[in-house]
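haha ok so turns out i had the wrong file open the whole time. this is the CORRECT one, sorry everyone. sequence first:
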Amino acid sequence: MVLEHRLFPEDAWSRGMYWSELAEAHPGGSRHYVVAVDGAGAVVGYAGLMAVGSDGDVQTIAVDSGHQGAGLGGMLLAELTAESVRRGCAELLLEVRVDNLRAQRLYERFGFEPVGIRRGYYQPANVDALVMRLDHLASDASDLKDHHNG
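then structure:
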């Protein structure tokens, strides 16, 4: 929660929201979460996926500012994408703040394309979200490894 509030001060998820998400992160559940830790065991990144039927959605992805730019975000996104393929998702969606160009570039490198805007999605700051989609996951799974390793 400390990292969540540091990275997303205007629109951080509550403890209750995370408990609700993690309650569904069990074998057979609709959620999949991964956590990255440093050598001392401190959480430096995390990401979550919701997969229901053929639809996948990146719920969250975060990397501590001291570890940004080192490829950790790409590793977390690659894990979520691979899990969505394992679960049979035909597409993967996500929302990203319209002012978060760094994250948008990461998603574009993985093949995500803009498909719409959700007005006022991030509250209470009332910031719009860019909706991005990655289609045909099963056929692109080998390409994703190339994006990550390249």
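DSSP finds five helices and six strands in the chain.
again sry for the mixup
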